[in-house]
Amino acid sequence: MKLFLRLWSYIVNPLFIPSLVSLWYFNFNYYSDPESVRLKLYLILIFTAAIPLLIYTMLKILGWVESIHLSRTKERILPLCIYMVLLIMLLRGAFTDGMHAALYYFFIGVLIASLVATLITTLRYKISLHLMATGGVLGFLVMLSFTQGISLLLPLAIMGIVSGLTATSRLSMQAHKGHELIFGFSLGLLSQVLAFSYFVS
Predict the structure, then answer these.
(1) What is the pLDDT of residues 79-91, one digit of tens each?
(2) Which helix (H) or strand (E) holds 52?
(3) Number of domains present in the structure of the chain
(4) How far is CA 35 from CA 32, 40, 98, 189, in A?
(5) Residue 35 belongs to what domain range?
């Protein structure tokens, strides 16, 4: 069981979440232009996963970080700052056509959460980035259901289970205390609510 929980922590790494959410969203919005969707997926994958992983590898080689989980607070500031720059580049480059507004505001929510997480990190407080990611997805689904007037009970239930497993995994690895998990989850969820509140206003 411990091996599964450790592997799970890698599977739901925050770097992979935006690409998975985008893939689900575009599959959900099947009427979208295939060429536009393909381009956006490539850009999302490059800016939120490929480049951050490349930067992590460089930081690892330089000895600035110990693991991809960024266990120490001092390891987090630079990667989070770089990630925010990449998010801004993605938002300015991939969503200029005005299409897929819901996904655009999802990434705005991710940017808000990342900014707050960076500020908190400077105070030497280590929130759970894993739970921030799953909380963000749950918040995105709730707000998407609300703004689009559709039922997303199954995806919401699945994300509830995913969040529970992720919290259990992080506790099992002694990577976080309970309040750090709750803070991270709440930050991710509320950032989506804040972003979508502007979307529907």
Answers:
(1) 999 999 999 999 9
(2) helix 51-62
(3) 1
(4) 9, 9, 15, 31
(5) 2-200
